[in-house]
Amino acid sequence: MKITLIRHGEVEVPYIGKYNGHNDIGLSKKGEKEAKKLAELFTCKEFDLVYCSDLRRAKETLKPFTQAKNALYTPKLREKSWGKHEGFDFDEITAQGVVYKNFSQWIEALDGENYKEYVQRVKKFFFEELAVQKADNVLVITHAGVIRVLMAIVQNLSLEEAFTLALPYASYTLYDTDLKTFSTIKT
């Protein structure tokens, strides 16, 4: 199976660089243009299945795609929830008294969705639910964290290593499930 993973376009300006999690925010004007550009790139591409996070920024990224009419929207492809820390950046969170010692400690220090449960949610979607579908080509519109978690699982990376990988807004990553390879393209 070949999976095209698209990170949503740039978010509304006040939310750039923030821990947005389940905040249901839309795209910026630039993000809307990025979505149209992505849709043009994939105009002639046939997908057997199309999945999209049910959060607004992902849905708005998929909207200009001709394949959007067949999409399945699911909360299983949402970013991790950061609870009361959603909508804040690193400095704003540390100003609330949360101390950064290392990646693992930081992830555990922030509330919201338990990180192990988040990883299991991503794992279950890709390796249990999607894996049994009769499909050769799949399109998935989601979030950087979901893509990085998938990469960590497949490539046996630590989550800290995976979260250093650059996945700009509106980039897409091609994942070949047979070869277990990824290639990320910046648009």
UniProtKB/TrEMBL annotation:
Protein name (record): phosphoglycerate mutase (2,3-diphosphoglycerate-dependent)
Matches recorded under Pfam families: His_Phos_1 (PF00300)
GO biological process, one term: glycolytic process
Family: Belongs to the phosphoglycerate mutase family. BPG-dependent PGAM subfamily.
EC number: 5.4.2.11
Top enzyme class: isomerase
GO MF annotation: an example: phosphoglycerate mutase activity
Active site (catalytic residues): H8 (tele-phosphohistidine intermediate), E79 (proton donor/acceptor)
CDD domains the UniProt entry points to: HP_PGM_like
Chain residues that bind substrate: R57
Keywords assigned: Gluconeogenesis, Glycolysis, Isomerase
Lineage: superkingdom: Bacteria
